[in-house]
Amino acid sequence: MPRTEFSPAIFSRPVYPGLISQGAVPAIMLAEGAGAEALIDLALADASVMDRAHVIYIPARGDSATGARLGQLGAKMYHEAPSYAACLERYRKALADAHMGTWLYLAGSEGLIGQAAAEATAAGLPADAILSEHRGPVTRRMQCVHCKGITEEVATDPFTCAHCGRSLFVRDHFSRRLGAFQGVAIDAETPGIVPEPRSIQR
Amino acid sequence: MSAQVLQVAEVEALSPLVTRFRFVHPEGEALPLFSGGAHVVVEMPDGAVLRRNAYSLISDPLDGSGYEIAVRRDEAGRGGSRFMHAEVAVGDLLRVGAPVNLFALDLRARRHVLIAGGIGITPFLAQIRQLIRLQLPFELHYAVRSRAEAAAARLLPDLAQVHLHISEEGSRMDLGEILSGQPLGTHVYVCGPEGLVDGVLDTARCLGWPKGALHSEAFLAPPPGEAFEVTLARSGRKIAVGPHQSLLEALEAAEVEVPWLCRGGACGQCETHVTSCSGHIEHHDHWLSDEARASQSAIMPCVSRFRGADLTIDR
Ligand code: FES
């Protein structure tokens, strides 16, 4: 899958400029699904980027071929996990052990990038040491501002909160702290009047 | 620029070359507080010329009872520091501008590493008071050639994280060691001679530090040079700039208004468009882009000079 492109959006929408090699400096690389291709492209452009890299990969269900290719890029450490939750402890440990000069490469869905960047920032990693490339679906990770529950892979606007069941309007307001977009009740002033959901997969 | 008349309350030699001055309000009023890294511009009526030099404040940012600066006597300079050393005595009245900070601490940092060379220690003297008060983790490295040159040594607190490096005594500063293994969220600040500033920034970049965690201040005094002439595009006037005068000072002497803040080529306030130039602009600033520099389309009058047949500026 090629790099995901967005139409120009409002200011608080994150942008993912893509992965650019910072050379053979210490690096943590976290990729999910189609994000593996971004790491493969990165290593093709500059093989030395893997010399001191700790790579964590979350493959799509049933896909073992992509991981096998990633594992051969010569990373100092390579690890696969079935989900973000499953690799979170390892990822946190890698951040806790990191020093200034360590770069973070994130590739995959917007939800993964958002959560992983928020985790890294909380660990003290400067925002300008985080590189990201969006590969994969254009669905959004949404936080309901009413019940605070997170709904993953939202593809329509409005959508139904997976936690409290409200119909939520998809805002372009992105919270860096949560790594999620904000959803607000669409029918707060006109209870029950909810527009037809339309696709946001643009 | 808002300046007020202050009185010199103390003059003290810190080393053979460096003198500390304390300014207070003549009626004892409190002065505006500042933040570590701030500077003030001191006006020096030196014969026919009015000099304005920027000096970092070295006193406690939260102490409004006075402002203190440390001035290094620069024999090769244009005369400001010589004036301070030779002419200024306790009781004198001088105009001092309001504090401006172009070298502030980034308080989002989790740890602050301060690296000073020689007189570049001055902004850090105020910053460490702020850091100690806020109980933020920091370390200070102060590099000097000889013990006699370590003017600020006794103004520094006796703390384990304050390191004095005296190259003559073999305790050279090892930048690679200082910058390796720093925890995530550390910011680095460097102030001193250009060689040290470049050394720190280059070492940090090689080690992978991102730009946003690096802060530098090269204390730039306007360098003296050859006399030159500039033409003012708006009035057609020609202004002569003396060898020990900056272009900014010459414009001010001719009552041409130019905005300024740092007078050291860092803030960008005085940027002036060049309308025609045949010759060579000696850019000494840290502001203009390489393209603007190469195309000679702009000049920073506070520090930069000119050599050649004609320089016409949009003033
Ligand atoms: S006054 Fe600040 S750059 Fe000239």
TrEMBL record, chain A:
Q: Where is the Dimethylamine monooxygenase subunit DmmA-like C-terminal domain?
A: 141-184
Q: Domain of life of the organism in this record?
A: Bacteria
Dimethylamine monooxygenase subunit DmmA-like N-terminal domain location is: 9-130
Q: Which Pfam families is this protein grouped with? A: DmmA-like_C, DmmA-like_N
Keywords assigned by UniProt?
A: 2Fe-2S, Flavoprotein, Iron, Iron-sulfur, Metal-binding, Oxidoreductase
The protein's GO terms of the molecular function aspect are: 2 iron, 2 sulfur cluster binding; metal ion binding; oxidoreductase activity
> What protein does this entry describe?
Uncharacterized protein
Q: Which organism is it from?
A: Paenirhodobacter enshiensis
Write the lineage as a comma-separated list.
Answer: Bacteria, Pseudomonadati, Pseudomonadota, Alphaproteobacteria, Rhodobacterales
Automatic annotation (TrEMBL), chain B:
InterPro entries linked to this entry: 2Fe-2S_ferredoxin-like_sf, 2Fe-2S_ferredoxin-type, 2Fe2S_fd_BS, Beta-grasp_dom_sf, DmmA-like_N, FAD-bd_FR_type, FNR_nucleotide-bd, MRET
Q: What is the recorded name of this protein?
A: Dioxygenase
Q: Name one Pfam family in it.
A: Fer2
Q: Which cofactor does it need?
A: FMN
Residues in FAD-binding FR-type domain copies: 1-106
Keywords on record: 2Fe-2S, Dioxygenase, Flavoprotein, FMN, Iron, Iron-sulfur, Metal-binding, Oxidoreductase
PANTHER family named among the record's database cross-references: CARNITINE MONOOXYGENASE REDUCTASE SUBUNIT (PTHR47354:SF1), NADH OXIDOREDUCTASE HCR (PTHR47354)
Span of domain 2Fe-2S ferredoxin-type: 228-315
* Entry annotated with the keyword Iron-sulfur: yes
Source domain of life is: Bacteria
- Please name the taxonomic classification of the source: Bacteria, Pseudomonadati, Pseudomonadota, Alphaproteobacteria, Rhodobacterales
Q: Name one GO molecular function term.
A: dioxygenase activity
Which CDD domains is this protein grouped with?
Answer: fer2 (cd00207), PDR_like (cd06185)
N-terminal signal peptide: none
- What is the source species? Paenirhodobacter enshiensis
